[in-house]
Amino acid sequence: MILVGKPYYARIALLGIAVYLFIEAVILVVTLVYEPSEAWYPFLVGGLALAGGATIYFVHPWGLLVGLMGGLFGILFSMDSIGENLSSPDSFLDFAYRPVFWLAGTILVLTGSIGGLVQHFRGYTGASGPGVVTKAAIGLLGVVAGLSLYSAILTVAGIDHVSRADKEGATMLTASVWRFDREVLAAASGGTTKIVVKNNDLNLHTFTVDSLDIDVKVGPRGERLVLLDSPRAGAYEFRCRITGHERMRGTLRVE
């Protein structure tokens, strides 16, 4: 095998790199099918992970320093919006991407990098390691697989669609490639205004109007009906409140 003879902790770090590469490959395939214009992202992130893995593999032991620095970045990357992501298991790319795959990969990379460097400075670098570390790594991969399957099932089963009857007379607002297709929405101050928010993307979006206490989650490839019941006349900002989606905003004009 390609890793036979490599130091034990270097193999643990490379296992973490493999976790990174696996999820980026999944994202690449899905992106090429649904949003090919965004395929640069998994290519970029996967390429960086691959470069880090190559350094760990070929440059021993100092390649583990690259693993250590990459692991520290991985913590920041994994923790970004972790509360929102973990509360959205019905959106696979939000739930499983950062707080599951990337966090698990980061744990493995940091464990391997730190353990390998400690062994090096102690003058011992062996091909075998503690059984408890091996069991923990296998257990971690099992948790990742279980949570990912759970999220994938919920994502497919939870795609919401608004009925044809509810769409009658409604204003359509579509989110696609992290943009809303309208910058201005009109609503009536008397009576009920219907807005159907459609999400063409593969990740979670929200339709949020802070001034009107509206905050509706729209799952990947789903639709949600928003009812405005006689809001006060005025101009209100609507937006997607997900971190990184700041360009998704517009104005709701109530007259």
Summarize the structure.
It is built from eight helices and eight strands; from the N terminus they run ααααααααββββββββ. The protein has helices at 8-34, 40-58, 63-79, 82-86, 92-95, 97-121, 131-157, 164-167; strands at 171-175, 184-187, 192-199, 205-209, 214-218, 223-229, 234-239, 249-254. The chain is elongated and about 80 Å long.
Structure description:
With 255 residues, the protein is α/β, with parallel strands linked by helices. The chain has helices at residues 8-34, 40-58, 63-79, 82-86, 92-95, 97-121, 131-157, 164-167, and strands at residues 171-175, 184-187, 192-199, 205-209, 214-218, 223-229, 234-239, 249-254. Strand 4 (205-209) and strand 5 form a beta hairpin. The chain is elongated, with a radius of gyration of 23 Å. The mean pLDDT is 93.
Write the layout of secondary structure elements.
Blueprint: H1 8-34, H2 40-58, H3 63-79, H4 82-86, H5 92-95, H6 97-121, H7 131-157, H8 164-167, E1 171-175, E2 184-187, E3 192-199, E4 205-209, E5 214-218, E6 223-229, E7 234-239, E8 249-254
Parallel strand pairs: 1-3, 2-8
Antiparallel strand pairs: 3-6, 4-5, 7-8
Helix pairs in contact: 1-2, 1-6, 2-3, 3-6, 6-7
